[in-house]
């Protein structure tokens, strides 16, 4: 049986007379990818912060495996745009940055060409990859991604969601991610927890996508085929095309 890394029991949190989290329990094991899904304001980011120990609950408990290495990609990270800062410089600010690791993750996420570029001149998709690189610097055992595809076009979203199980396999880590679109993450996740303050339903993505509680929140969406193909080259950021090892991207 896989080792349990995080366990939350009966979490309840109120803010300004509103119940943001209502009696939520969940468990996360090594190697598992768990996706939190739900409408705006349903408590996804709050739950993530509670699981990470960044917010306190009114009732309930969170247990994390002692010494767990965590990589966190927050939903928002505001940088002062008067601060001159390159991507490499930004990553070097992380206390986990070790020589070679920054280059390794920039290369792995296909953004090596951005190392000397100003962080203020990145596209939404590039910035998300830089934030992901930052979360990977300490080779986390638990990777937490709060809306990792924000500001990314649909093709970029599919690529990022393909990357997440690969990273899980490479690092052997567990992943918790927040998403708005079940159909886009279906292939990349083992378990879905559908939130609306409380847990509306949870389970394998195929089960959740037909659960009446999920359908009453999101309606019946046209099923999106998850298209994959083998590709023998990569399109680099500077525009040139490069053959790839193993023949797939
Ligand atoms: N400190 C706070 N004080 C008051 N209300 C708060 C506080 N933190 C969160 N909330 C409220 O709790 C609810 C859940 O917020 P949260 O950011 O967790 O939602 P979310 O599901 O991540 O939303 P989104 O999909 O829009 O990012 C919202 O209605 C928010 O306004």
UniProtKB/TrEMBL annotation:
Keyword Nuclease among record annotations: no
Tree of life domain: Bacteria
Alphabetical keyword list: ATP-binding, Cell inner membrane, Cell membrane, Ion transport, Membrane, Nucleotide-binding, Translocase, Transport, Zinc, Zinc transport
Family matches, as SUPFAM superfamilies: P-loop containing nucleoside triphosphate hydrolases (SSF52540)
Membrane spanning residue stretches: none
One of the GO biological process terms: zinc ion transport
Single GO molecular function: ATP hydrolysis activity
Claim: Methyltransferase is one of the keywords in the record: no
Domain ABC transporter residue range list: 6-221
NCBIfam families named among the record's database cross-references: PRK09544.1 (NF007090)
Entry protein name: Zinc ABC transporter ATP-binding protein ZnuC
Organism name: Bacterioplanes sanyensis
